[in-house]
Amino acid sequence: AQTVTQSQPEMSVQEAETVTLSCTYDTSESNYYLFWYKQPPSRQMILVIRQEAYKQQNATENRFSVNFQKAAKSFSLKISDSQLGDTAMYFCAFNNNDMRFGAGTRLTVKP
Amino acid sequence: NAGVTQTPKFRILKIGQSMTLQCTQDMNHNYMYWYRQDPGMGLKLIYYSVGAGITDKGEVPNGYNVSRSTTEDFPLRLELAAPSQTSVYFCASSYSTGFVSYEQYFGPGTRLTVT
User: Fold this and answer.
1) Using CB atoms within 10 A of its CB, is residue A79 exposed (0-12), middle (13-18) or buried (19+)?
2) A64-69 and A74-79 strand pairing
3) Does the pLDDT of residue B81 top 70, yes or no?
4) pLDDT tens digits for A21-42?
5) By C-alpha distance, which of B81, B93, B82, B84 is closest to B35?
6) Where in chain A does DSSP place strands (E)?
7) Pick from B94, B88, B95: which is nearest to B110 by CA?
8) Cβ–Cβ gap B58/A98 under 8 Å
9) Per-residue pLDDT tens over the stretch B30-67
10) Burial track B69-108 (b if 16+ CB lie within 10 A, e otherwise)
């Protein structure tokens, strides 16, 4: 079974600085999808970024980018120019029909 | 589009009672999912469906049942509620061709307490 590990339960960053959230996963599949979701206090799950495993190029979405290392089974999220609104729980997820989430990293952006 | 809607938003059940959590999506997505999120934890997949009439177990299916009679609706049934089922339940949907899996869209969640 696939497993997703987020080794940083909590992180904090100063506003306007850069922070990287870690995620590793374990799978024997070669084709799959990886996601980062954000969950603010409202509890709504919001997609941040998506990466297809067959693509070598790292995905980017404005201030959010990933470092996808397929051989190492690593999928980290970099948030540049952090904003107060980025404060939330961040979940890494692996999908090959059976979606698996990590336990989450609570990110606090400090003014 | 309303997206993914869930009812109710909150519910308190007594041990041994049963209930159905409703989920509807209006995006014509073929895949639908039910998750539970325990406090301070990530989401765990309970059941999923790849299309009307087809359902499959996820990571934590015990104590739950689902059905998928239409593309739009994917209700989750709790039989004989137990305190261990106290959680926040999320329904989600996505479009997948089997070769490409797009992102999941989530409902707002149902907070369930079993006492």
Assistant:
1) buried
2) antiparallel
3) yes
4) 999 999 888 888 999 999 998 8
5) B93
6) 3-5, 10-14, 19-21, 24-26, 33-39, 46-52, 60-61, 64-69, 74-79, 88-95, 100-101, 105-110
7) B88
8) yes
9) 999 999 999 888 899 999 999 999 999 998 999 999 99
10) eebbebbbebeebeeebbbbbbbbbbebeeeebebbbbbb
Amino acid at A63: R
How would you classify the pairing of strands B43-51 and B31-37?
Answer: antiparallel
Please tell me if residue B92 touches chain A, with a CB cutoff of 8 Å: yes
CA terminus-to-terminus distance, chain A = 41
Place of tokens 């934590």: B60
Q: Between A and B, how many residue pairs show a Cβ–Cβ distance under 8 A?
A: 52
**Integer CA distances (angstroms), A83 to A48, A90, A92, in order:** 14, 14, 20
Cα–Cα distance for residue pair A80/A83, rounded to 1 Å: 9
B111's tokens: 């907070």
Residue ranges with strand state E in B58-109: 64-66, 76-78, 87-94, 105-106
Quote the minimal CA–CA distance from A18 to chain B in Å.
Answer: 24
Q: Do B104 and A99 touch (CB under 8 A)?
A: yes
Q: If we measure between CA atoms, which residue out of B24, B32, B26, B15 comes closest to residue B78?
A: B15
Q: What is residue B107's three-state secondary structure? A: coil
The Cα angle at residue B85 between residues B79 and B90, in degrees rounded to 5: 95
Containing B3, the helix (H) or strand (E) segment is none
